Amino acid sequence: MRMSAKAEYAVRAMVQLATVDDGVPVKTDDLAKAQGIPPQFLVDILSDLRTDRLVRSYRGRDGGYELARPAVDISIADVLRCIDGPLASVRDIGLGDLPYSGPTAALTDVWRALRASMRSVLEQTSLAAVASGDLPEHVRCLADDYRDQEEARGHSVG
C-alpha cells in the first residue's frame, strides 16, 4: 500500500480534530499549523472529508471544522477511503475479475489476504485510539514485531 500525501495529511488532521472538545470548531489555519500541513492543501482535504460526512464545517468568525461523529466511531480506514478510495486494489479491477490463470491463479488469494490484513488494522483503529495512543492490541503487536524485525536487520526504527 502506498499512501498519498493527501491521505496521510487527512489522517493527521482528523486525529488532531479528535483531540478537541466536542462543539469546539477548529480553524483551518490552526489545524494546518498544528500538523504542518500546507493550508490550501488542507482546505481541499477538508472539503472531501465534509462531502463524505466525516467532518462538519461552520462559517463565520467563530467557524471552523469538527468531527461529524465521535472519534471512536471513525476509523483510519474511513478517512483513507474518503481520500484515496479502496484500501488495496490491483489496477482498479475487482479481485474476482483479475485475469489470473495457471501458476498465477493463487495471486488473487494473496491480494485478498493483503486487503484483509490492512482492513484488520485500519478498520479497527479509531481516531480516538490514535489520539490517545491506546492502539488495539493486535495493532501494537504488529508494530512491535515490525520494530523487532527492523532492529534485527540493523535499521533504525522511528
Automatic annotation (TrEMBL):
Listed GO cellular component terms?
cytosol
Stretches of the chain forming a coiled coil according to its record? none
Keyword field:
DNA-binding
Recorded GO molecular functions are: DNA binding; DNA-binding transcription factor activity
Which domain of life does the protein's organism represent?
Answer: Bacteria
Pfam families, per the entry: Rrf2
Q: Which InterPro entries match?
A: TR_Rrf2-type_CS (IPR030489), Tscrpt_reg_Rrf2 (IPR000944), WH-like_DNA-bd_sf (IPR036388), WH_DNA-bd_sf (IPR036390)
Stated name of the protein: BadM/Rrf2 family transcriptional regulator
Q: Which organism is it from?
A: Mycolicibacterium vaccae ATCC 25954
